[in-house]
Amino acid sequence: MNGTDLKGIGMTSARTRERLANRLREKGIGDERVLEMIRTTPRHLFMEEALSHQAYDDTALPIGYGQTISQPWVVARMTELLVERGAPRKVLEIGTGCGYQAAVLAGLCDEVYSVERIRPLQEQARKRLRELGLARVQLKHADGTLGWASEAPFDGILAACARAEVPRELLDQLADGGRLVMPVGDTGTQWLTVVDRDGDQFHSQRLEPVRFVPFQRGVER
Ligand code: SAH
Questions:
Q1: Atom of ligand 1 lying closest to residue 143 CA
Q2: Which is nearest to 120 in space by CA: 139, 93, 148, 103?
Q3: 212: nearest Cα among 69, 44, 64
Q4: How many CA atoms lie within 13 A of 24 on its CB side?
Q5: Which of 86, 135, 157, 184 lies 20 to 30 Å from 194 when distance is taken between CA atoms?
């Protein structure tokens, strides 16, 4: 796909994206930097064509392998929390999935690293991000439980999958003054959780209830 094609796609769905951004604002998203990313990131390109007519509805959609592209409100809310105290320079995402959240982060942060445990999803995300000119997002097929040690520390960490507790490695890889955003909880209720690091202290806040796919262990080929 070349730049002209992308521009054409952007033009045809710009109005629907604007509507989505307005809806997210009504639902409480107040950060204009985040709303701008919702307006400019072509979510329909991150899913199968058969579902693309629903791309700008505020719902999660299947992306295969039992996984989903997160609901736009969730992406916006997590991003807003991550950049609340100033956009982090270097960010780690756990659970690339289709790559949409990574594309949103790439517009706000200097360096984005993202890991995915299901190889075909990771490969597809790489292709899409490259087509969108976002090849500088660093992707890895790996178990996010371990973070990305060789690139740590990260000013921000965002996990798009839920577990009963934040993995220790992720806390260790958070820079001093950094923030982690992750859904925490088991198969019952999960809570959007923010953890701020201050030296060796970790301050945790539990925010709204959410629904995410599980943060699993190990990788799938
Ligand atoms: N960020 C995506 C959300 C994808 S859903 C978006 O923009 O919509 C969450 C993803 O987390 C799934 O693709 C799932 O395979 C992945 N995941 C779950 N456990 C993981 C782990 N331990 N390491 C890496 N990825 C994981």
A1: 23
A2: 139
A3: 69
A4: 31
A5: 135
The topology under which CATH files domain 3-210 is Rossmann fold (3.40.50)
Residues with CB under 6 A from ligand 1: 67-70, 94-98, 100-101, 115-118, 121, 143-145, 160-161, 213, 215-216
pTM of the model: 0.94
CA distance linking residue 46 with residue 31, whole number of Å: 23
Q: Residues near 213 by Cβ (< 8 Å), separated by ≥ 6?
A: 66, 67, 68, 95, 160, 161, 162
**pLDDT, tens digit, for every residue of 147-203?**
999 999 999 999 999 999 999 999 999 999 999 999 999 877 899 999 999 999 999
Domain boundaries defined on the chain:
3-210
